[in-house]
Amino acid sequence: MQWMSNSLQLNKALLKAVLSQAKTIVDATCGNGNDTFFLAQNMASDAHIYAFDIQEVAIENTKELTREYSDRITYICDSHQNFAQYIADKIDIVVFNLGYLPKGNHALTTTAEVTLPTLKSFLEHLQVQGHISLAVYSGHPAGLEEENELYAYAKKLDKRRFTVGWYKLVNHPQAPSLCWIEKQK
Prior knowledge:
This protein is of the alpha/beta class. About 30% of the residues lie in helices and about 25% in strands. The chain is built from 5 helices and 7 strands, in the order H-E-H-E-H-E-E-H-E-H-E-E. A 7-stranded mixed β-sheet has the order 3-2-1-4-5-7-6, sandwiched between helices. Helix 4 packs parallel to helix 5 (about 140-155). The chain starts with 6 loop residues before the first helix and ends with a strand.
């Protein structure tokens, strides 16, 4: 297996380094539950995860996979754009895994029209020293547009307030990109 050249593995390594300090964690696109499960396995004992997805099947898949951690997870079948209706606290970590639900309806994808304003809102609700990770899949038309718009936005974030990294395999065009944002102040 590729280790640091795989953006999803790199994302896990970065998350693992900060999860022990996080109290409020958001999986903005819980999908089949793999990210929620990873977060639950590595979070502090007093942390709580809010797992969002717009598809009921995704919520059910996530509940099944994370059953042993369910007392510390709130499962929300709603768009991540509505997160402020569910979370009053400042947020420490937000994880996005964009695109479509694997083994699901590939016509139903995340889009820049929803993701970009949601990202902006999450940045305002993020704790200082909080982190946002976005795994961005550009191998389909909506994903390519989403990647282009997110990259254009991320590279313009104020460097006095945010540190932004963008990792992309240049010889694997279908591989996901990773955007990692840390709030400085």
